[in-house]
Design brief:
alpha/beta; TIM Barrel; 12 helices; 49% helix; globular; binds flavin-adenine dinucleotide; oxidoreductase; proline dehydrogenase; flavoprotein; Proline_oxidase; Proline_DH_dom
């Protein structure tokens, strides 16, 4: 499995394929986990989720942006999505990757783009989550977040449990809204736990620390062992349900998503859409061999 994971992570970073895939439309089974390439099809999925008592965090897909022009284009798309959320009155916020809006071009330029996005979202009372990318972007991402938090409270980020430093990062972000995850990228042993056992143990440890801090927490996982442990912990420690939510990705464990919402837990589904689906989809294939079977089936049936 290690080799397969490495292979798909490597594919996710292939820029030629990332660029090519924008012209293909949703292929290789991606339509199961990506809610279309335009706002209208994405909104259809969001409304269906809302009808089941589930909110959405919308990702206007994009990454590996190395020019100002592309970054500005991505920012405009995000602003248009915010406007659509407001106009259509859906229960949704947005997730944004900083490399999409210029982190690899220039930090200050990226901060200005982000400021514009968070400012527009604040006018509509919409929260903006900054997704966490690979370790090489982590410090810049946290620096930009801390700048934004001086002016806004409708912005937060993601803490990856596979990183040794995450416990310290949690301490410095006690009041911010945070999403806790295991971590989706391939990082070296100098900075991150490598075994599933160690990552799971740290994930649960960080969740427990975090649920006793003041900020709102999104626990983002498809792992029923973790979800069961969280349910038990919040019950034993009388953590009010308004202080946290569960999150899963669009198209994954949809029955369990609905069950958790029906049980009265706040629930948000991560809804990616757009033409830039390739890198996102390859990381999902890296995470789970069953997803690879799904992709292979769709390749032979088309
Ligand atoms: P895994 O370790 O993948 O799975 C654990 C166990 O759960 C499996 O062995 C299996 O028994 C069960 N299981 C898992 N999936 C399924 C399934 N589909 N069907 C049936 N059983 C299943 N990562 C980042 O690095 N940065 C981010 O910003 C980020 N944002 C995310 C947002 C959301 C909403 C989610 C859900 C994930 C996000 N991730 C992010 C990805 C995350 O870091 C993990 O890579 C990903 O969620 C896989 O880990 P897992 O916790 O779901 O459990």
């Amino acid at each position: 499995m290690g080799l397969t994971r490495d292979f798909f992570i490597a594919l996710s970073k292939n820029q030629l394929l990332n660029t090519g895939a924008k012209k293909w439309g949703l292929k290789l089974g991606a339509s199961k986990v990506v809610a279309g390439t335009d706002i209208d099809s994405m909104m259809k999925s969001v409304k269906e989720l809302n009808a089941n008592g589930i909110g959405a965090t919308i990702d206007n897909l994009g990454e590996f942006v190395y020019s100002k022009e592309e970054a500005l284009h991505a920012k405009e798309n995000i602003l248009a999505t915010l406007e659509a959320i407001q106009q259509r009155g859906v229960t949704a916020h947005m997730s944004v990757k900083l490399t999409q809006i210029g982190l690899d071009v220039d930090d200050k330029f990226c901060l200005e783009n982000m400021r514009e996005i968070v400012e527009a979202a604040a006018r509509y009372a919409i929260f903006i989550n900054i997704d966490m990318e690979d370790y090489s972007h982590l410090q810049q991402t946290l620096d930009i977040l801390h700048e934004l938090l001086k002016e806004y409270d409708n912005v937060g980020t993601v803490i990856q449990s596979y990183l040794y430093r995450s416990e310290k990062d949690l301490e410095n972000l006690q009041n911010a809204r945070l999403r806790l995850v295991k971590g989706a990228y391939k990082e070296i042993a100098e900075v991150s736990y490598q075994s599933k056992q160690d990552i799971d143990a740290n994930f649960l440890k960080l969740i427990k620390i975090r649920l006793q801090q003041p900020g709102f927490t999104s626990i983002a996982t498809h792992d029923h062992h973790i979800i069961d442990a969280v349910k038990q912990f919040v019950k034993e420690n009388q953590i009010p349900r308004g202080r946290f939510e569960f999150q899963m990705l669009y198209g994954f464990r949809t029955d369990m998503q609905k069950e958790l919402a029906d049980e009265g837990f706040a629930f948000t589904t991560y809804v990616p859409f757009g033409q830039d689906w390739y890198g996102y989809y390859m990381r999902r294939l890296a995470e789970r061999p069953q997803n690879i079977n799904l992709a292979l089936k769709s390749m032979v049936s088309k």
